[in-house]
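Subject: sequence -> structure tokens, single chain

Hey, anyone have a minute? Need the predicted structure for the following. Not urgent.
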Amino acid sequence: CLGVLGVKKEILEGVPDHLHLPVAVTRYWLRRASPKPDYLHALLMVMVQGELNRCQGLTTGWQGDTKEIFQPPNRVVAHSFNQWQACLMDASQLNQLLCRPLQQPHFAWLYQGRLVHQRVRQLQESTPEVILPTADFKSLYSVLLDAVLQPDPGANTRAGGAVEPLTASMGHLHLNTPDGVEGRKQKREGWE
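Reply:
Had a minute. Here:
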């Protein structure tokens, strides 16, 4: 599953096991989304806040500050987070199909739409460390941010890395080569 997302296992060292899949998906999303997402910090803040609340057995505060006047979500922000959610859903289904090589995340604690939009607005005027200043938050936020932004030189091209290892390992397939095309034509003619 990590290979499909273009993420090496070493990148995820220090990340809690049940957050490997969402972090790998977030790395993939940052490289492949169109338009390029500018909302990584808000997404990670919500992930960290949900994780800390889950670990402490809390539910209060998960929806964010309910006293804040409701503002309709920004469409560009919503589109970007919808792309992330679609990537997460597809990667989760692939993970299940592969008999769960990665631990399934606690989905209910990963993302809360209203809260992530609130964080996007707050980040226009502040930083994540000021908005949620606890030591636990800073520690987990830093681990996730480092894992998401760390360069990965061995990834495939679709995820933003090198193409040579992939091309070399597929060379025996003779795809898009004159020999490969002729060989396929001969086989087809033999089947007729």
